[in-house]
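Private note to self, pasted from the team thread so I don't lose it. Backbone tokens:
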């Protein structure tokens, strides 16, 4: 589907690919698979990820199945442009944690002939689009949505359900805090949570009223 051959310097064409999905959907594995193929094709590869993602070692993109490729952690999307040496292929992991400037950075790299492969969460724990992923999907030539398995019923899962009560948008994922759920199970889990929250409130109120 994607060209692996090195385009001639004269008319080098770049493009943008997005791999998105919920937590545990294999986004990073797919990013690494594509980057490894590019490496086999003797293309130069660079990887960037946001500094915020400190789950694993500072300088590696490490996926959940422990495939890894060396990468550079940067604190803003502008630094990708500054640090990107003339690479044929640039991978960007955890793209949802970058600033909105990433859209222009990716366009600019693709316009210069770079193949840009972006991996990121398309929705936050509340099921809302996780910016700048929607914008990146819009400018991309190719979008692939990957799925996890629903931990409740085994269907394809597209939601990252947060088991804890924190409202912090940037709570990094581990199995203890999140589980992938399908639409039906996600809605059910949220309705239970809401009921529980309301009854908690009622209890607090009745305690106060006494
Ligand atoms: Zn389900």
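Design output:
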């Amino acid at each position: 589907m994607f060209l692996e051959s090195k385009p001639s310097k004269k008319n080098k064409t770049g493009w943008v690919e997005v791999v998105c999905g919920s937590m545990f959907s294999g986004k990073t594995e797919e990013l690494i698979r594509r980057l490894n193929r590019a490496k086999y094709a003797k293309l130069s590869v660079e990887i960037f990820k946001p500094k915020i993602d400190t789950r694993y070692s500072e300088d590696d993109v490490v996926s959940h199945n422990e495939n890894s490729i060396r990468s550079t952690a940067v604190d803003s999307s502008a630094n990708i442009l500054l640090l990107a040496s003339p690479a044929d292929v640039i991978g960007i992991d955890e793209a949802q944690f970058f600033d909105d400037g990433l859209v222009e950075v990716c366009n600019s790299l693709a316009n210069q002939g770079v193949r840009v492969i972006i991996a990121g969460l398309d929705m936050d724990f509340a099921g809302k689009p996780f910016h700048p992923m929607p914008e990146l999907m819009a400018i991309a030539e190719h979008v692939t949505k990957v799925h996890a398995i629903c931990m409740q019923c085994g269907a394809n899962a597209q939601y990252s359900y947060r088991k804890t009560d924190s409202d912090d948008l940037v709570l990094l994922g581990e199995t203890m805090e999140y589980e992938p759920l399908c639409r039906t199970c996600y809605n059910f889990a949220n309705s239970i949570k809401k009921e529980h929250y309301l009854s908690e409130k009622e209890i607090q109120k009745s305690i106060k009223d006494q």
